[in-house]
Design a protein that fits this description.
Layout lengths: L12 H7 L2 H10 L2 H19 L35 H7 L1 H29 L1 H15 L3 H12 L3 H27 L3 H8 L4 H9 L4 H24 L11 H8 L9 H29 L1
Helix pairs in contact: 2-13, 3-5, 3-13, 5-6, 5-8, 5-10, 5-11, 6-8, 7-8, 8-11, 9-10, 11-12, 11-13, 12-13
């Protein structure tokens, strides 16, 4: 047997690649992507902190200790303490929980609503597309934070309100992406075949077309998640998002940023770095997913 021969019964590398499903190809590409794996490691770290952080942090993140207020980073308090003596390290670790609950749920809502809307306007086109697309464009012209503030002032502050507001604010962006993908798919033969079989519009959209537009939906969803994290942190910083006594990062920055002028930088720095690292991780995942679907 020569060096290039393959043992009997063993598929060669090209044969294996040829038999790999499209989703298998995507997974294979993701597992070879350093960008994706790095981002995934960062995101999984913060997910682990959100799920189990309270079990290994050295202090109760809600317990104050006025005597040790504004202590700088030390062996006892790795990230120092805030203005009422709470351990900053413990608060940063546990503070990931709320933002990793609200932001993904808001993104999920945006994906579901945006996908359904994009399928409808892309499939029916005509007057439906013209009217709805103009409404979506007008809605997207207003900054997300402004829309969120107006809605929260009207509806009241709660996690559920933040989820709904951010989700519906991002839905038009996802709808536009899905619409573009559907416009390309609706002209293909399998859609024409479904119409010849007299399949209903709902069946054609959600059974025939939807599986073929999942890649751009996944890419857009991961991108929106990064924006949702920023939106949740911004609303919390402004006092309209997650409320005390949560150790949420945006809320902690809002409570302590006035201390920076006095030289107490640690009360804000580590929360800001936590937000930045999570967003970077999500963006790296999004870049990896985009690359995998475009290889």
């Amino acid at each position: 047997m020569s060096a290039t021969d393959t043992p009997a019964g063993m598929p060669s590398a090209p044969d294996t690649a040829a038999r790999r499903s499209p989703w298998g190809e995507v997974l294979h590409s993701l597992l070879r992507s350093g960008t994706f794996l790095t981002g995934l490691a960062i995101v999984l770290f913060w997910i682990a902190c959100a799920l189990f952080g309270e079990h290994f942090v050295p202090y109760d993140p809600l317990a104050d200790d006025i005597i040790n207020a504004l202590s700088p980073p030390s062996a006892e308090h790795w990230f120092g303490t805030d203005q009422i003596g709470r351990d900053v390290f413990s608060r940063v670790i546990v503070g990931s929980r709320d933002i990793l609950t609200v932001a993904p749920l808001a993104t999920l809502l945006a994906t579901i609503a945006g996908t359904a809307l994009g399928l409808i306007i892309g499939y029916f086109r005509g007057i439906v597309d013209d009217v709805v697309s103009r409404v979506l464009e007008a809605f997207m012209a207003i900054p997300v934070v402004i829309v969120a503030l107006l809605a929260i002032v009207a509806l009241g502050t709660s996690k559920a309100t933040v989820i709904v507001v951010i989700g519906l604010s991002f839905a038009p962006i996802i709808a536009r992406t899905v619409r573009s993908a559907v416009l390309a798919e609706r002209e293909l033969d399998y859609v024409a075949a479904a119409k010849l079989r007299h399949e209903g519009a709902m069946h054609t959209m959600f059974v025939e077309i939807l599986p073929n537009v999942i890649p751009p939906i996944l890419v857009e969803t991961t991108v929106r998640l990064g924006y949702a994290i920023f939106a949740v942190a911004t609303l919390s910083f402004m006092g309209f998002g997650i409320q005390p006594p949560s150790p949420d990062w945006g809320l902690s920055i809002s409570s302590n940023y006035g201390m920076i002028g006095g030289g107490f930088w640690w009360t804000v720095l580590f929360d800001a770095l936590a937000i930045a690292s999570l967003v970077i991780g999500v963006n790296l995942v999004a870049d990896g997913v985009h690359g995998a679907f475009n290889d």
